[in-house]
Amino acid sequence: MPKASDLRIGLVQQANTADRKENLAKSTAGVRRCKELGADLVVLQELHTGLYFCQTEETRVFDQAETIPGPSTEYFGTLAEELGLVLVLSLFEHRAPGLAHNTAVVIERDGSIAGRYRKMHIPDDPAYYEKFYFTPGDLGFQPIETSVGKLGVLVCWDQWYPEAARLMALAGAEVLIYPTAIGYELADDAPERGRQRDAWTISQRGHAVANGLPVVAVNRTGFEADPSGVTEGIQFWGSSFVTGPQGEFLYRAPEDEEDVAVVTVDRQRTADVRRIWPFFRDRRIDAYGDLLRRWVD
Prior knowledge:
It holds the Pfam family CN_hydrolase. With 297 residues, this protein is an alpha+beta fold.
């Protein structure tokens, strides 16, 4: 029997193509399936309407950016209202000419925009040239109030930073959510691939433990070629997962398959776990001033 504290979260892990309509249709089918499985909230992966275009630096890609509100929020707003659930989107936001963001948008059950989060940490690595496209976020680390609770929505590269998770938790987030696009560069050997994927998982499980919060990470899967041919392309490693507030796995998706699942998290466990592991009580906030410095010499 479901409890009042239960939150049923849908995950849609998909492989994308350059065909926006095909990607939207796949996401829509995933969201509908989540609804059939009882979801209250559905999370889509990072930049789910198209390919992960940051493998190259091309000015024409800015044509893909869209306003918020705009085509995607209208499309998914209609879907959210029809199904009566909350959606977490991830979009390439056009803010002004030459100014764009990697933005997560939360759509409420009635189709309205509950809030947005602009990705704060922007990588610039081979095959992940995001600084060319995305201006760092300026909305801070504020949970988004919804009918299903306060959602601490962050995006991909943010998942490596304990400060981001902590600030969301301190602001009252009831769950940490990470739309993601990460994978292996095909030149990496098997041991290196394992180290990367394990580090990604461990980091986020650590955020769950340190903050006593469930964590939801939804990653894409499938291979996407590097249009420039400089690298061998990215094999996105899927592996979307949900943990409870002690870092325990509640669900793990496969690496190389598309996947739809609904996972129940019990928000009452957050309070229960924080009582036995009172990390917030024991924080030495008087001694953390150096965290505001780039480096401690």
